[in-house]
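thread from #wetlab-drylab

HS: before we spend reagent money on co-crystallization trials with histidyl-adenosine monophosphate, can we at least see a predicted complex? here's what I'd submit
DV: go for it
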Amino acid sequence: MLTKAPKGTNDMLPDKSHIWQYLEDEIRKICKEYNFKEIRTPVFEHTELFERGVGDTTDVVQKEMYTFMDKGDRSITLRPEGTSPCARLYIEHGLFNIPQPAKLFYIISCYRYENKQAGRYREFHQFGAESLGSQEPSVDAELMSLAMLLYERIGLKNLKLNINSIGCPKCRSAYNEKLKEYLKPYYDNLCDTCKSRFDKNPLRILDCKSDICKGIVKDAPLLLDCICDECSDHFEKVKSYLEGMGIEYHIDPLIVRGLDYYTKTVFEIIADNKNSNSTICGGGRYDGLIEELGHAPTPATGFALGLERLILTMEEQGIEIPEPNDTEIFVASIGEDAAKFTQAITFGLRKEGIKAECDHLNRSVKAQMKFANKLNAKYTIVLGDDEINNKKAGLKCMENGEITEIDLDVKKIADALR
Ligand code: HAM
């Protein structure tokens, strides 16, 4: 136990950190181009936020939340997703007063008590982008274009953008009645969770993970066939904006998404991997969420993509992110006095912005050179009493073995390396 991380969590190891940094850099770059500003919210929130936001009949709230009472007897939940905290932040900090839509993004850890399988973890990371304050279909299309362009830049192939409209509360209540009518004869065969959803929120039965429920709903009436004229018009416009940007999409009337706050447009991006199909991004419009949290009705839309699943897909597709070039100079030392001097020179070079390294294990010169090779050092310099007394040393280029005599002066060494 002491040396094993909890089930469903992953450590980031040093040989993978550059991949995460690369992705985070690409995300921040594209968000800047799209004018989305970064936000950070707490890892935990009041449980009620997710019960109200995500919905108390969803799998996330009913089965997957890490919820506990804190020492002050408050019910606290580790965030299972980022949209509800973002909506809470928007209301709490009056972001409805800045020019709308407020375009916000986050890179966060999320927590869901799920059974571990490939690409499904209990702690995972999301990049999410949210646009709050506009009901225009252009916003839905803009968000999809952002996700697709990010994947394109990373080099992902075989992606499918699937879109659907799940209507508004008005058209959905008529659909719910139709769905209940269809489900009635199968009621006894539904799982217990879905029986409890039957009256409260029958739409949730459509995304139940139980095989029996999946079999029952496969021929259920489609919500897309029942949406009202306003929702249908909105959906048509989303499609035409996507077409205008040349973004290929597919209509998938079976997408309902697993969270309650969605209205109108919903979408998922699927990576067609050799071994599995993976939903690497999901999102949609949530025009009712901010009102549900107690503020004036405010339209909004967004998406989140899972970073672990993105990295798995990159690996499946053979996309390699080279490790950034290694140590620029290794400063070796002979003897204890020189070691002190060496650390001072190394410190000076780092101050100059040079990636420099020295020995910390009292190695022999030969072992220090072996270590410098492991670090892929481009240059080395060996400092002993002679070099220190004469204030001159040999700067060795590790690629061609050439040695150039150089003054033992930090600025001069730094200039020679630039
Ligand atoms: P979601 O579909 O629940 O939506 O999650 C978004 C993405 O997070 C998924 O497509 C997947 O890539 C990743 N993900 C979800 N659960 C796990 C897990 N257990 N392990 C690994 N990756 C996972 C949301 O969370 C919404 N808040 C998205 C949104 C933003 N909608 C509007 N704005």
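DV: The chain has a mean pLDDT of 95.
HS: ok that's useful, forwarding to the group
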